[in-house]
Design brief:
about 325 residues; Rossmann fold; seven-stranded parallel beta sheet; 10 helices; 13 strands; binds uridine-5'-diphosphate-4-deoxy-4-fluoro-alpha-D-galactose
């Protein structure tokens, strides 16, 4: 297929681009590189450095079979502080994408949605039929886009898949996490293990879970990438298919830290901080629909994610120009 990848210079988009190329697809990446990195775009993909508002200019070239849409603002805390930025970029930006997809009669769309649409769930594992009650602006904007895509499918015959990611981790084919503002548990804990950061703050150890720390469902970015390739052909014309992507098993923050210490052979210095606002206690995906509709089952476990993320982070640190050792403490954000 000839594909347009919106946000192909970011973490997940750059990994999916690599797999698409490996599988023989043609890829054009559109990314404004505001949070992504030009050098993360896979060799073999053309980069158009533009805002997603210009999607129509690229689709006008003709011949595209599918759009994969990863381009979004995705920091939960920032979304609560700057809601307008999230509604403009994620919702208005995607409106422009959908207009272009319709105008140029692109038959298929794959969209990066999130488990954040479910908010604090009544039960785990979470099926796609669970109530959607996002607790932050990020989740609300992704839910709005899911609804907008559903309406578009009904009206135009577009075949679309929204993939609701749980906690994505790991690295693959030379691409991995390189956020300038890092908020995710695994990269922060790896940096603490490596001495690039003083310590990891555990955001609360008084949650209603067995060891008191929150439980999440971690999924390897390479498994996630495979789900996107399968999603390209999973929906029928006019259908909007929604699938959760997780491993179906939950790990607490303390279990993740223990795994990191085992894999790296280093200690992760920690302190217990107050809870982060908006964090649910437990998020685990039901994988039934992804298995049935995409034929997808994840193959890599937490250990594999940590090992791959560690190798990627160590490689990058080794090739980075020498700087003073980072001493910024991992402080808890204002709640
Ligand atoms: N955590 C810490 N200390 C840190 C960072 C995280 O204790 O320094 C804890 C969090 O409280 C949480 C767990 O580690 O319990 C995982 O936190 P992450 O920030 O890595 O991930 P989240 O579960 O908050 O969020 C992820 C994605 C979001 C998405 C959400 C959906 O990053 O984009 O999953 O559930 F919305």
């Amino acid at each position: 297929m000839k594909t347009l990848v919106l946000g192909g210079a970011g973490y997940i988009g750059s990994v999916v681009t690599r797999l698409l190329l490996q599988e023989g697809h043609q890829v054009v990446v559109l990314d404004d590189c505001s949070t992504g990195h030009e050098d993360a775009v896979a060799d073999g993909a053309e980069l158009v450095r533009e805002d997603i508002g210009r999607t129509g200019d690229v689709l006008a070239r003709g011949g595209f079979d599918a759009v994969l849409h990863f381009a979004a603002k995705s920091l939960v805390g920032e979304s609560v502080q700057q809601p307008a930025l999230y509604w403009h970029t994620n919702v208005m930006g995607t409106r422009a994408v959908l207009d272009a997809v319709t105008e140029h009669r692109i038959p298929r769309l794959v969209f990066s949605s999130t488990a954040a649409v479910y908010g604090d769930p009544d039960e785990v594992p979470i099926p796609e039929t669970a109530p959607t009650r996002p607790t932050n602006t990020y989740g609300a904007t992704k839910l709005a886009v899911d609804m907008m895509i559903g309406n578009e499918c009904t009206a135009t015959g577009l075949a679309a898949v929204s993939l609701r990611y749980f906690n994505v981790a790991g690295a693959a084919w030379g691409a991995g996490e390189r956020h300038s503002t890092e908020s995710h548990l695994i990269p922060i804990a790896l940096d603490a293990a490596a001495g690039r950061r003083e310590r990891l703050s555990i955001f609360g150890d008084d949650w209603p879970t067995p060891d008191g720390t929150p439980i999440r469902d971690y999924v390897h970015v390479a498994d996630l990438a495979r789900a996107h390739v399968l999603a390209l052909t999973a929906a029928a014309p006019g259908e909007h298919l929604i699938c959760n992507l997780g491993n179906g098993s939950g790990y607490s923050v303390r279990q993740v830290i223990a795994c990191i210490e085992q894999v790296t052979g280093r200690t992760v210095p920690v302190e217990v901080a107050r809870r982060r606002s908006g964090d649910p206690a437990r998020l685990v995906a039901s994988g039934d629909r992804a298995r049935e509709r995409l034929g997808w089952t994840p193959e890599r476990d937490l250990r594999g994610m940590v090992a791959d993320a560690w190798a990627f982070a160590q490689d990058r640190a080794a090739s980075a120009p020498a700087t003073a050792p980072a001493t910024a403490p991992a402080t808890a954000p204002a709640t």
